[in-house]
Amino acid sequence: MPAGSLSFEAIGTRWQIDTPDPLPPAVITALHDRIDRFDRDWSRFRTDSLVARMARTPGRWQLPDDATPLLELYRNLYEATDGAVSPLIGRSLETLGYDRDYSLRPSGPPVPPPRWEDAIAWDGTHLTTVRPVSVDIGAAGKGYLVDIVGTLLTAAGIPEHLVDAGGDIRHTGSDSIRVALEHPLDPSKAIGVVTLSGRAICASASNRRAWGDGLHHVLDATTGLPTRRVIATWAIADSALVADGVATALFFRDADRLRSFEFEHVRMFSDGHVEWSQNLTGEVFA
Length: 286
Fold this sequence. Notes:
Layout: E1 4-10, E2 13-19, H1 25-42, H2 50-56, E3 59-62, H3 67-80, H4 90-95, H5 116-119, E4 120-122, E5 126-129, H6 141-155, E6 161-165, E7 168-172, E8 177-183, E9 186-196, E10 200-205, E11 210-211, E12 215-216, E13 219-220, E14 225-226, E15 230-237, H7 240-249, E16 264-269, E17 274-276, E18 282-284
Antiparallel strand pairs: 1-2, 2-6, 3-5, 4-5, 6-7, 7-10, 8-9, 9-18, 10-15, 11-12, 13-14, 15-16, 16-17
């Protein structure tokens, strides 16, 4: 275990940052401030966030400086999955009960969100909405924030670090780590293990944030319904942003359809069978 280990709760998940030496107080303050700023911009669970204002009023919105990589990834995922992955899924999640109050009580039947091309236009700086839209960046936002935190640590003169936000992990340094792939139906077991060195791994599973009669947070934006065929995914990429987004996209499309992104993956289906990349840096036990 590194000499420095910082743990805290933020954006609804547990964070752990491991470094060779304890982090200076000024760096810790900067980390918390940066995470809070990201939350104020992108959280649909806050009434004062930018996306909360978008959900109330259409208009032309100036996006934060960090928006470009996130929106570019979403646009590419939207096209690669024929619209199944969309940042406009927020209202559908709220209708199913995954709302600001975490009521977990559906308020109506599932409805697909509007199509990107019908509801929003993005010019690289501003997002124009022709109607109120509920933006949810849950498919890639946490991974992107992991990258932002890692970049901040590097800029602070801490080039070797491990950032883990609820299982979205970015490793930077000369050594390597082994990461177990938690069985989605039995957290006491692993279906495999991968070696991570200077890369990121992100996972998604339908048993996380699940409620009611088969409801969970991984929705197909073309139908507004929870996905059923795939129950867990893992993606390894050079950035946590790409790993997180691809892990979501793998619920809806085969890996061959996503080859515009560079990644390794493991995917588990509802019938129990598992597929994985031929070049996977690790092993699968199933």
